[in-house]
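Anyone? Bumping this.
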Amino acid sequence: MKRLHLPLLILALAAISLGIFQHKVRNLGFPVLPAQITDNWIVEARVAFEPTGGAVTARMLIPHQPPGFALLDEHFVSRDYGLTTGMTGDNREAIWTTRSPRGRQVVYYRTTVYEITRSLRPSEEYPGPADIPQLEEPYASAASAIVERVRERSADITSFATVLVRDMAHAPDENLALFVTRGGDERERVRAAIQLLAGARIPARMTHGLHLTERARDLQPRAWLEVHNTREWVPINPADGSVGYPANFLVWWYGDQDPLELSRARNAQVSFAVTRNFQSAVDAAQQRALLLDSRIADFSLLGLPIQTQNMYRVLLMVPVGAMIIVLLRNVVGFQTFGTFMPVLIALSFRETELLGGVILFTLIVSLGLAIRFYLEHLKLLLVPRLAAVVIVVVMLMLMLSIVSHHLGIEHGLAVALFPMVILAMTIERMSIVWEEHGAADAIRQGVGSMGAAIVGYLLMINPYLEHLIFVFPELLLLVLAVTLLLGRYTGYRLSELIRFRALSGRSGP
Amino acid sequence: MKWFITPRELRRLGIVGMNQRNTGMIARLNHRRNYPLVDDKLLTKKLALDAGIAVPELYGVIETNHDARHLPDLIAGHEDFVIKPAHGSGGNGILVITGRMGERFRKASGLLEEIDSLEHHVSNILSGMYSLGGQPDKAMIEYRVKFDPLFADVSFQGVPDIRTVVYRGYPVMAMVRLPTRGSDGKANLHQGAVGAGIDIATGVTGHGVWHNDIVERHPDTGAGIAGIAIPGWDRLLELAAGCYELTELGYLGVDVVLDRDLGPLILELNARPGLAVQIANGVGLSTSIDRIEAQKPKNPPSPAERAAFVQALIGAEPGVRS
């Protein structure tokens, strides 16, 4: 059990981490890559009318599980109105009521929708074959002739509907001409198609939807045809018979009816407006998680104030940097001053940028080292000497900032972001190593620290990594697992392959 | 020589790497509570004296900056001496004075220093500059070992010492560490000293390792390193093995110096001995350790028995030596 303890712990941490990660990616749609944008549409229905006196009721049909879309949020803008929503048949409706309004009234319904690949709408059962409509002559014989002709050229319900609609649109013979009036609107054509389909006992219905386009005002709802192929409702374009809804077509309501029904009011006017809304995928996922009532989103960093978020964007990279240090020290065999000093230096490189940071760091450390060697001659006690080094480092930073500002090198100003105490400790340690082990050792360790800081920096500025850790902080558990795993690494360090090279080719025991 | 060695070859030679040393040896065999026994050289000295193990004589201890005034009193009457931190590590902060020149003191390197400079060194030691973790420390002033002329040809100033790695009381591997010009009289390999492997069974030196490279001759004196027989080797191994009882550290480095007059003296103990001893001997630690683990006697034998056991074990297999 004792032997298994650590492996089990590592497995558990990794499993939890990857489990939450996978759930957030798969089910909540959190983006794995940074700066992913999802399309949102904000659709607004404006309902205006004039009351004729007395209590007014306005019933407006609103979208319900439209195919290919999901509703992100809904707002009902209506002052002094009571509001209820409910289902009537296939449709959902919003019912605004008020007692005695005066003057022209306007209420709004606004929803944000986004495209989804799977439909939220459960597939509806086959309503049974349609009743054959009772038609008078010459319509009855014309209808049966049309059905006969279309049936010859079609294979199934969907193709029947397609052929019929195409005939109606393109080549109306004298039989079809009875049903289709030239220049008639879409609704009439769909109505006629439903009638003719019923002649073939095919259940069909009319739907109304909006073609979402960028910044459209006064959008007209379009009528569409749906036939049931005994498994599901299949949309048919009433203009050319093509199957399926076009992209960005939002089905608003079903049935051959107007979307608005008023009592004690007149001059009703319904207009639709659309704007496209680019929202970062993270925000969209966040809202989605709320819709799905997912607890996980509650614990997200994204709920924090922006300033705190930005701080954590940086702070969350420190564990990654620490893991890199573990790798560099225990697996590669880098020698560094202070265990995590390179991580802190790497953090400040974020502000100064790499080249500027390396130059400034080298400059300050070398100047500080020179002064530290002078202090050595003064025979000071340890703590006063350390304090003196800190003071000198701050003055050096100040000087570098002023000089570089005068030279017009703005990068030099960023020197103030270096952690000065860390710098002072680095200088102190380096000078001791220099004295004790010689310049070669000191420079080797200095270069090692710098190398570790550069590697750490390059990883820590990686936008993909930063995004991953920030949006999926549970991945830190994985970082922890890897670190624990490395904690048991007893193999050789890469540097030891060089250190022990003198033994190569030696006969073993 | 290739510029690297494959991990496979390292494993075949039984080389212990840094990570394995830290977890498999130090963390497993050395209890943290026993560290003070070796980290505090004053304490080690006291334990060794109690156990009847020979150590260099202590002239005095300076514990506070105030006491540093007494430094001239403490060193009065001693022509030569060593100032070292009680909690030093890696041989840092050890100042060796080999003689006097009027008011001034001659360092091992031959340079002269004022008394001020010595006092500053003491104050550095007290402030914790050389101690592990920067803790305030004590300065020890002790007998400077007059080293046995045995190694005179193969060392450049300083004190050559014999490092023995003791695994659970069994002295598994040893090397002699020879100061060079570059190591400033110090006998630490990472400071530039030469390490020469010693045949555990016979006490005869082999080739040397200098800056991780194999050398046959001392870089400063040019004298051959191999083939020097250490007198009283059995006694020395027994001394090293006995340090296990002193500290109960399962992975221990014992540094012994050969004094011209006093014979082998324990200079210091190390709870984290380095791995260079493997290069000096051309063989890995785990080879010997595995064999000791497999064949060691059940009931705990005395230090002398353990030393003899290892000598018999290693000596029985010629060809291990390089």
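Late reply, but here is one note on the structure posted above: Chain B is about 30% helix and 25% strand.
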